[in-house]
Each structure stands twice: as C-alpha cells, then as structure tokens.
Design brief:
The complex is a heterodimer of chains A (about 220) and B (about 200).
Chain A: E1 26-28, H1 29-46, H2 50-75, H3 85-101, E2 107-110, E3 117-122, H4 144-156, E4 161-169, E5 199-207, H5 209-219
Antiparallel strand pairs in A: 2-3, 3-5, 4-5
Chain B: H1 3-17, E1 20-22, H2 23-41, H3 44-72, H4 77-80, H5 84-100, E2 104-107, E3 115-120, H6 141-144, H7 152-163, E4 166-174, E5 183-192
Helix pairs in contact in B: 1-5, 2-3, 3-7
Classes of the chains: A alpha+beta (about 220), B alpha+beta (about 200).
Chain lengths: ~220, ~200
C-alpha cells in the first residue's frame, strides 16, 4: 500500500474486498502487546478503581468498534446491512472476529436465564495474551478493550447493547483438541512458549429492550 | 563488510518466526491511545512528550526481546555492533522488521558519524490516519499540525539504545502525514554511557 502517491486518505484503497486473509497485513503480536500494555497502563494511572479502568478500556475500544464496523461492512462482497439480532451477532463473532483476530470466535451462546443476553466466547483472546492480573486488581478483565470494540460495532449497527468482558475459569476437559499453548500458530495467535490458558474470555452482550422488541416485531 | 546483507536477512528470519497480529487492529489501538492523549493533554507538544515517554517504556523492554530472540537464533547481534553504523543497521533492518514487518532504510550519516536517519516508507502506526489541514478551524488544524503522530518511534529507539549504553536523541524530521514523501527519523548519538552494571552488581 503506497501512501506517497496520494495524500488524501479517501483516495486510498480500502484493502482486501471480500476479506481474503492472504492479503492481510500483519505486525508482530509483541508489537501489539507493547502498545496495548501501554494503553492499559495509561488508563490505569488515571483510574481510581478496577471498574473505572474497565470502563475506560471499553470506551477506548468503542471508537475502534465504530470504525471496524464500517470497514468490515464495506469489505464484504454483498455490502449488506444486518437488521436481525441473530445475524448481527453472527457478523460480530465471525466477520469482525476474523478481520481483527484472524479467526472466528470460539462460540456464540444464548443465555438460559435472560432472553436479552448473549455470550461470545474466546479461548485465546488476543488482548490478554501476555497479561497476568495481580491479586489486588481482582476481577479485572484485560479484554475490556475488546468488549468496547463489540459494543461499538453493535451500537454503530443500531443494536444498542451493554457489553462486558469476564474471565471465566476453564472447566476440566473443556476445550479438547483446541491445541492451546504450544499448538503452533494455526489459531492465529497461539503463542509457543507460554503456558496454556486457565481462563477463557466471555463477552456478555446485553441488548437494550427496544432492540429486542424491534426484533420481535420483525419476527411477525 | 557484509553486515548490510546480514542485518536484513536476520530481520527477515526473525520476522518469519514472530507470532502475528492484525496490523489494522494495531493501528486502531495506537490511534485510540493517541486520541485519548490529545483529549487529556490538549497541547500537542505535551502529547508528543507523552508519546516519547510511552515509547521509551516500550523500547527498554523490546530491546530485550530483540537481543534474546536473535541470540536464540544464533545471530549474535550483540557482538556484531562495533560502531554506530552497525547499530543503525540493526535498528532499521532487524528492529523495525522483526516487530512491525516493514523494511526501514538507513542513511544520511553525518561527517562525524554520530548521527544518521532512518527512512520508513510504510508506517504501520499511521494506517487510516489523516491530520486536519492547516487552517482547519473546526478540527483545530493549526494546532494539531504540531502533533508528531508517530513520535512513539523516537521513544522506542531512545529507550532501546539506552539499554545498550547509547544515549541518543531522536526526532521525526519528515512525516508522510504532513505531506512529506517519506518518514524520516533523525537519530543523534549524544554519549556512550559507561557500562550500566554499577558496583552493586559486581562480584566481591
């Protein structure tokens, strides 16, 4: 991508229409981790509590989410706009996930207890690859930034939702054959040399009531 | 001397082994950090200083990663850097390549061999970025022209070289975001520090 020929950002190609992953440009995971670590540290120095830190990370991701939505939508061949609840969730957990993390989310589940809640599950969330949360920060999820991105995408598409990130301990025998840890780079960001993860990231998506009633109306 | 060839080969070899992340996610994440800084500090000069500080904190750590990974791969870069010319080659051809996957060039050595430039065609930090035009009042264009968006690099180079006892000063002198043809980072050697491990660490 040569930038010297044109100084106007709108004249530049948007890159890979159709989302062929071979054209994706990469930087090293380390470089991303350094930047992300500085982002967290910066917000940590200005946040008084764990929940405020998470909120700050979410709002940092929110703006990214709005842009990611636009970019991903332009790049899909159909240029289709998702209007149904389930399709936007699929869009997030597959298209958006693929374009950002190089693979789909591990699963998308509907909450049993609450009809307005959905969960997107990722076993190897990129943001917390090298993160170990000290005990005094307790429940902090370093993936709050990603939940902000999801919220930005959903909100931008007209599905107002509150998205939060949670660390959930892996259960015995969960995730078999997933090849975590030393399983090679097939998953996009499985890093050799670091121990397998004990937690998975659960992104809890809680839609606003008006989104649900609108979707129910479309059902008829 | 064949260090030119070696450095770019070493950079390529290390890059191919690095786990990867999407460059767009990287650029957007950096963007959200910079926008936050601009919101918090308002004064672009202060933002530049903060970016330099943040870069420094990255630099002191990533030099470790570079040297240890090069060592594991049997490249022995630490002994290869006999003078500033060699060091410059390693920063540009190994450092930038290994972490960002882009090729940087070295040139413009001063007469006394104490300063040089790193040229960067593609700047992964600045994908999607456009600075408001000069005179753009709505977006505070005049003021934001003073922002050195990619000032992080200066901090990184300064921090990394500081760890190998080279005190340098870095400056972005040309920037594609401001209409220049290439990104140019000027690096000037100020002082070769005495060996860092003080008396405290010496064996009795």
């Amino acid at each position: 991508m040569s930038r010297s020929s044109s100084n106007n950002i709108l004249d530049r190609p948007l890159g890979r229409v159709g989302g062929r992953s071979t054209d994706t440009t990469f930087v090293s995971l380390s470089a991303f981790a350094y930047i992300y670590s500085e982002l967290v540290q910066y917000h940590q120095s200005r946040a008084a509590s764990v929940s405020e830190l998470e909120r700050r990370l979410e709002s940092a991701g929110y703006g990214v989410g709005l842009k990611v939505l636009e970019m991903t939508a332009y790049r899909t061949k159909e240029m289709k706009r998702e209007i149904r609840l389930m399709s936007i969730l699929h869009f997030v957990s597959s298209s958006v996930w693929k374009s950002l993390f190089g693979r789909s989310a591990d699963s998308l589940e509907r909450s049993i207890d609450h009809a307005d809640e959905y969960m997107i599950i990722d076993y190897e969330p990129i943001a917390s690859t090298f993160v170990s949360v000290p005990t005094d920060l307790g429940q902090l999820s370093a993936d709050a930034y990603v939940s902000g991105i999801i919220a930005g995408v959903l909100d931008g598409a007209g599905f107002a939702a509150r998205v939060t990130a949670h660390n959930v301990k892996l259960e015995e025998g969960e995730r078999q054959g997933g090849g975590s840890g030393s399983g090679g780079g097939a998953g996009g960001n499985a890093v050799p040399g670091i121990p397998p993860r004990k937690n998975k990231a659960v992104f809890l998506v809680k839609f606003s009531p008006e989104v649900l009633s609108r979707d129910a109306a479309l059902e008829r | 001397m064949s260090s030119k060839m070696q450095a770019s080969q070493a950079g390529q070899a290390l890059w191919s082994k690095m786990p990867k992340a999407n460059a767009e996610l990287f650029a957007l994440t950096y963007g959200s950090l910079v926008t936050e800084l601009v919101r918090d500090y308002e004064d672009p000069i202060e933002v530049n200083a903060q970016l330099d500080r943040i870069g420094h904190s990255i630099g002191v750590r990533c030099v470790d990663e570079l040297l240890s990974k090069a060592d594991v791969a049997g490249m022995g870069l630490a002994t290869q850097c006999q003078n500033l010319r060699d060091t410059a080659e390693v920063v540009a051809k190994v450092g930038f390549k290994m972490f960002l996957g882009v090729q940087a060039e070295v040139g413009g050595f001063s007469q006394d061999q104490r300063s040089f430039s790193i040229y960067l065609q593609d700047n992964p930090l600045a994908t999607f970025v456009e600075l408001p035009a000069a005179g753009d009042e709505q977006y505070n264009g005049d003021d934001l022209r003073k922002l050195k968006y990619s000032n992080l690099y200066c901090g990184v180079i300064r921090g990394a070289l500081e760890q190998v006892n080279l005190k340098v000063e870095c400056n972005i002198v040309r920037d594609t975001l401001k209409g220049d043809e290439v990104n140019e980072i000027r690096v000037e050697l100020k002082e070769v520090l005495a060996d860092g491990a003080g008396d405290d660490y010496k064996e009795e």
